[in-house]
């Protein structure tokens, strides 16, 4: 793309991926990821001890095995889906925009992406962390990291940030459109909306959150910034867009780690109760992820499917994330155009 001093930049940022599904590369990735105080929110000495004495000596080998099960000839699914989205959004927006992809941890990194924007003549850009619901552990970490890198590498770059898009109509349509072929073919008895979990301690940082069991049933000014409340708001929007009754959909949270109490209900617990209720054909959507990755393809598509069959379920269908679906490409472009105008 030719240098254009009036070009508007777009920086898409996702969480990250190891360079390969080997214990060495996974260990390097986990060290960077879990050293982030927003991810492991505990005093620095305790975090260092947990990481170096417990996690890094044991987890890289197990995680490398998990990554190996989803790795493709082209490489990391998360990275390949991100590249496809970047290129499609660039085509959708046209030559007046320069679109870059970066990862919070690993490659391609944020400093290099910022430098490419500057080299293309960009002086004004929109940052879109690719997490529909806001959390300090993901979105907050990306925003802080990008701002630190911008101050050091690109201080003249003006940056607007999209903090969340959990009920954005374009996002909701994209999730539905990407999932619809699977849902139509599978004919599920029930739909599970499985979101990434968080420790309760991080959610309770939002005043009033988790004070009662119904605190997320309605979104208000009090809980608008709460991750769990945003997840349930996404669930309500998706249930409506899919034309389903509320009793045919369950919201749950996956990816628990460690001994701390995480937000409820847990996906692996919910599926047991669904099986006991007589559900046999379960469809699963993961609306906290815009791109298929380890947490969707391996955690849900392989491990949760195996658990489902162990507890008496028959079939589990994992619906694809929006990835680079045309509806999602248009939604991203619309989010960027709206923010650029603002």
Q: How is the topology of this model organized?
A:
Elements: E1 8-17, H1 23-34, H2 44-70, H3 77-93, E2 97-106, H4 110-119, E3 124-129, H5 136-153, E4 158-161, H6 169-186, E5 190-196, H7 200-203, H8 227-241, E6 249-254, H9 267-276, E7 281-285, H10 294-310, E8 315-318, H11 326-341
What key phrases describe this protein's structure?
4-stranded parallel β-sheet, 342 residues, Rossmann fold, globular, 11 helices, 2 domains, alpha/beta
Task: Characterize the structure shown.
The chain is an alpha/beta fold. It has two domains: 8-165 and 326-341, Rossmann fold (3-Layer(aba) Sandwich); 169-318, Rossmann fold (3-Layer(aba) Sandwich). 48% of the residues lie in helices and 15% in strands. It is built from eleven helices and eight strands. The protein has helices at residues 23-34, 44-70, 77-93, 110-119, 136-153, 169-186, 200-203, 227-241, 267-276, 294-310, 326-341; strands at residues 8-17, 97-106, 124-129, 158-161, 190-196, 249-254, 281-285, 315-318. The strands form two sheets. The chain has a four-stranded parallel beta sheet with strand order 2-1-3-4, sandwiched between helices. A four-stranded parallel beta sheet has the order 6-5-7-8, sandwiched between helices. α4 (110-119) packs across α5 (136-153) and α6 crosses α8 (227-241). The longest helix has 27 residues, at 44-70. It is globular, with a radius of gyration of 20 Å. It starts with 7 loop residues before the first strand and ends with a helix. The mean pLDDT is 94.
């Amino acid at each position: 793309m030719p240098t254009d001093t009036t070009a508007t930049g777009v920086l898409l940022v996702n969480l990250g991926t190891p360079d390969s599904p080997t214990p060495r590369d996974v260990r390097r990735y986990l060290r960077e990821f879990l050293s982030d105080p927003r991810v492991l929110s505990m005093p620095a000495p305790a975090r260092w001890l947990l990481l170096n004495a417990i996690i890094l000596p044991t987890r890289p080998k197990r995680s490398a095995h998990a990554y190996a099960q989803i790795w493709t000839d082209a490489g990391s699914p998360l990275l390949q889906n991100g590249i496809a989205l970047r290129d499609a959004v660039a085509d959708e927006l046209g030559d007046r925009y320069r679109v870059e992809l970066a990862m919070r941890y690993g490659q391609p990194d944020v400093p290099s992406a910022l430098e490419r924007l500057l080299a293309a003549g960009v002086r004004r850009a929109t940052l879109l962390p690719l997490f529909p619901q806001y959390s300090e552990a993901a979105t907050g970490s990306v925003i802080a990291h990008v701002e630190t890198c911008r101050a050091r590498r690109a201080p003249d770059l003006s940056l607007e940030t999209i903090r969340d898009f959990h009920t954005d109509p374009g996002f909701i349509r994209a999730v539905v459109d990407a999932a619809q072929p699977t849902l139509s073919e599978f004919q599920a008895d029930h739909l599970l909306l499985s979101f990434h979990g968080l420790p309760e301690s991080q959610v309770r940082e939002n005043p009033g959150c988790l004070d009662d069991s119904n605190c997320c049933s309605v979104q208000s000014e009090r809980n608008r910034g709460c991750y769990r409340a945003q997840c349930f708001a996404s669930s309500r929007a998706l249930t409506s867009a899919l034309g389903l009754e509320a009793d045919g959909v369950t919201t749950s949270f996956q990816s628990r780690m460690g001994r701390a109490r995480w937000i409820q209900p847990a996906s692996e617990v919910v599926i047991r109760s669904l099986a006991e209720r007589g559900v046999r054909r379960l469809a699963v959507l993961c609306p906290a992820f815009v791109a298929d990755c380890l947490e969707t393809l391996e955690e849900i598509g392989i491990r949760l499917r195996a658990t489902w069959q162990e507890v008496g379920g028959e079939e589990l269908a994992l619906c694809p994330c929006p990835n680079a679906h045309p509806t999602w490409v248009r939604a991203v472009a619309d989010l960027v155009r709206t923010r650029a105008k603002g």
